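Structure, all two chains, one model.
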Amino acid sequence: MSNLTAFILIFFRLLARKNQVHLQVPALTTAQPLPAVDLIIVTHNEDVDLLRKTVNAATFIDYPDKRKLNVVIADDLNRPEVRALARQYHVQYIGMEGNQHAKSGNINHALEHLSAPLFAIFDTDMIPFTGFLTDTVPLFQQNRQLRAEAAAKHQPPVKQLGFVQTPQSFYNADIFQFNLFSEKIVPNEQDFFSRDVNVLNGSNETALFTGSNALFSRAAVDAVGGFPTNTLTEDFQLGSEINMAGYTSLATSKPQSSGITPIDLKGVIKQRKRWARGVIRSCRNLHIFINPKLSFKNRLILINSYLYWWSFLRRIIYMIAPILYALFKVQVVNANFWILMIIWAPGYFLLHYVLKDTSDSIRNERWGEIQETFFAPYLFLPVILETLGIRAKKFKVTDKHVTFSLIDKLYIIPYFLFWLVTLIAIIKFNYGKFGSEILIGSVITFWLLMHFINLSFCLFIAMGRPVYRKTERFSRQVNGQLWVKNGWQPLTTLDTSEGGLSFSLTNPTDLHPGQTLRLRLTPPQSAPIALTGELMRVSDADTKPVYSLQVQLPDRENEDRYLHLIYNGFNDALPQQQDTWVTPFDELYTNVMMRLEKWERQLSRLTRF
Amino acid sequence: MTITRFKKIVYILAIALSVIYLVWRVGFTIPWHTSLFALIFALLLVAVNSCPT
């Protein structure tokens, strides 16, 4: 089974290379009339402050004729404060009551009131960039033109484009990046799916819909009867239904929006459980193994997504097998060491070489294993239950608020138990053995050690790490001026966040913490932003002083522009690719040291009295 | 990027060796004469394939 998923991925990677598929997004054409777009922001019970950022960003999206872009807030709780927000930003508000079908119900209800040929879906916490439409609409125009040309030349018809998915990207570090002190080294865990797997799916014109920041053809969605309401993952199912109805789907690779990813254990695990159950359920609804409407490659893609959720049970079995042998002498593989070496080793290492060769730099296998181990104890049961048709009670929307509680700490228990038992197994198995005995047992020790390392990482992830910053910091280099005495001095910002920013001056002057400063930022292609703030800190970064300011914005207009400046664009402070020079072992070392330091500090504080 | 002849051979070899391994694994390594518990676990392990990826 695990081999199978690997083969499928290799197959598609080779195919993609052979066909040289790199989706090129053309420019918007004036040869066709510009299509009208409804941009639907779906909200349920999220903070208005969070929604504001998304609505604000939506009003900044580039489109040659802004009258053709209709921003809509779909609110299924009919909240007056959301209605007020819509009025403030001059966007459409569609409220509803008594929604029985969660997100799908909300969207289907909104669609009844809308009619544009294209519509986009955004989650409350997915903040669009200005380039979202220019990166997606041209693909629909191109498709339309190709279809017209084929029809004119009496060639076989070109399939209609159903939707374009832009990648998911997140502006805060995910739980793996954050809790392992590796924000600068490992990319977001979900990037692997979004920017690697789904782009490959898209090269087959059957990209999957991932729930937000996608642009749909209204006709395609209407053709499948709207958003599906019989699953927890309406996104996955809708995308496949559209493909089965004869429409294509594409995935672009450049992020055109950015969202928040949960970093508390409970939130992360709950979200994953929902996805797991949803995908298993949707696969049943879609009859992926026998549905005659699925093309060969599309079926492979869906089976691959289905098997992915079984990899967690596999991980559990892998972890238990060597423990059984080492501790209880339960032999589950009946093999001679040397035969095993001859038959297993060459294939194993060659396959891993090939996987490494065909995979790209977003994720390597090691990290994949750690993430798999991390989710395994919590996902293997839901997957089995859902397969047997035993459903979970109602699921809530993933709460993206970071609230750390005692219950969060309890989530560490399975990792700790596994870790402890594995450690005991390693010691007991090798204790008192010599020479060839150790060699013969090395296969078992090898697996135990692998799992021990993975579990150590899981322990670190589950231990968490205190969150100090309230808002996320983004590196943004923008020019501006600082009012000093009686003139404007040029400055450049280094990074910005909702609470503050840091900048450097072209001609450093003497400023003192506590001073109130007046600034003017002049971002390109945007009106200037006026702001004031208290100087918090002056620090020397390579001899050029860096000034940190607590920001105050005079009015709503400046606030909106400032929010736009922060959130329009990928957060460069986070990596997009795996730093291959930093191995997991370096990582493990860093984590041990960081945590030892912390304990040492605590200990010395205790012993001081 | 086109695939070199060498790589093509390596890929095919990787898949072929894995298949040989799987056949051997299924055919010759299952401990049939053991306790029921161990047998069930052994079969599960074969099912998920003892070669991780």
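The interface with chain A takes residues 1-3, 7, 10-11, 13-15, 17-18, 20-22, 24-25, 28-31, 34-35, 37-38, 41-42, 44-45, 47-53 of chain B (CB under 8 Å).
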